[in-house]
Design goal:
Elements lengths: L3 E6 L2 E6 L10 H16 L4 E6 L5 E3 L20 H10 L5 E5 L2 E3 L1 H8 L2 E4 L4 E3 L2 H4 L5 H10 L2 H10 L3 E2 H6 L5 E2 L2 H16 L3 H15 L6 H15 L2 H11 L10
Parallel strand pairs: 2-3, 3-5, 4-6, 5-7, 6-8, 7-10
Antiparallel strand pairs: 1-2, 8-9
Helix pairs in contact: 1-2, 2-3, 3-5
The structure holds ligand LCV.
Length: about 260
């Protein structure tokens, strides 16, 4: 059973997340389908892609499928995690990917949206960075994605409070491109996609890759990377990590002890 829909309008591809019963949680299956859809659009030489949720979704995506987070001392967000692969696929995709948001965006889905090139959201949309809510150790490149999208002070507020911020605030701090009323969202997004698709695709794909490489060019020594990576084990080996996932599954507030 497919959890997304894929359509193409000339040079513009549209991928819609469509698993409402789990609020488009980024399960292995859903993410694998999105990656495959991007591959199809790449082979069809799409010149712009719109990534959206099915019309009427209250939640754009509830983030990583919590039921798929390992609890046995394994890195929950390692290199091969499907969500990590999706972020890399979007960042290296040869044409711009536009995130069209109407609803709540949670956890790892915020990173997927921030990995997109342009973000257009309705005023009611929200964005919540949730590792601290679940006791999860976010991954290094994910933190870099956040740091590329907003000032350090904003990233700290999002990460430490784990509470949703509004699209209006996100636009105000430069984290998203436009806030558009729901009734105009599709037309506005499709117009922007059509404008991009009418421009020179090679120039755009080369500028996209140049910007990715230059934005990611941060001085980090091997020793610095090992320290940052090692700190994550402190979290995913902790009781709090197990408590965060258990509390979600038992539909109760977590009781974190700091151990
Ligand atoms: C699996 C879910 C999920 C879900 N996974 O509807 O960034 S990190 O490090 O935190 C990373 C590890 C990550 O992304 O973790 C996930 C972060 N996501 C969240 O914290 C959001 C968790 N979901 C919610 O807070 C609520 O579901 C929202 C507010 C999105 C919607 O609330 P609402 O009351 O409308 P329910 O909570 O009743 O959810 C409907 C069904 O979807 C499942 C949830 O368990 C429920 O399933 P059942 O009907 O079987 O009980 N669901 C929701 N989110 N991330 N499953």
């Amino acid at each position: 059973m497919t959890l997304i829909s894929l359509t193409q309008d000339g040079p513009v591809g549209i991928i819609a997340l469509n698993n409402p019963k789990k609020h488009n949680a980024l399960s292995h299956q859903l993410v694998t389908e999105v990656i495959a859809a991007l591959k199809t659009l790449g082979e069809a030489s799409a010149r712009a892609v719109i990534l959206r949720a099915q019309a009427g979704s209250k939640v754009w995506s509830a983030g990583h499928d919590i039921g798929e987070l390992p609890e046995d001392g394994r890195d929950p967000l390692g290199w091969n995690d499907p969500l990590r692969e999706l972020v890399r696929t979007i960042e290296t995709f040869p044409c711009p990917v536009i995130a069209m948001i109407d609803g709540g965006v949670w956890g790892g889905a915020v990173e997927v949206v921030l990995a997109c090139d342009i973000i257009i959201a309705t005023p009611a949309s929200t964005f919540a960075v949730t590792p601290a809510k679940l006791g999860v150790p976010y991954n290094v490149s994910g933190m870099m994605t956040f740091m590329s999208a907003a000032s350090l002070r904003i990233v700290k507020e999002l990460a430490f409070t784990a509470t949703p911020i509004s699209a209006t605030r996100a636009e105000h701090v430069g984290m998203i491109n436009h806030v558009i009323e729901p009734q105009e969202l599709e037309a506005f997004t499709q117009d922007m996609a059509a404008t991009i698709a009418a421009n020179a695709p090679l120039s755009i794909s080369v500028m996209k890759e140049q910007l990715r490489v230059l934005a990611g060019a941060k001085p980090l020594t091997p020793r610095g990377f090992e320290k940052v990576q090692g700190l994550r084990r402190v979290v995913y080996d902790s009781q709090d990590y197990h408590e965060g996932i258990r509390a979600f599954k038992e539909k109760r507030k977590p009781k974190f002890t700091g151990s």
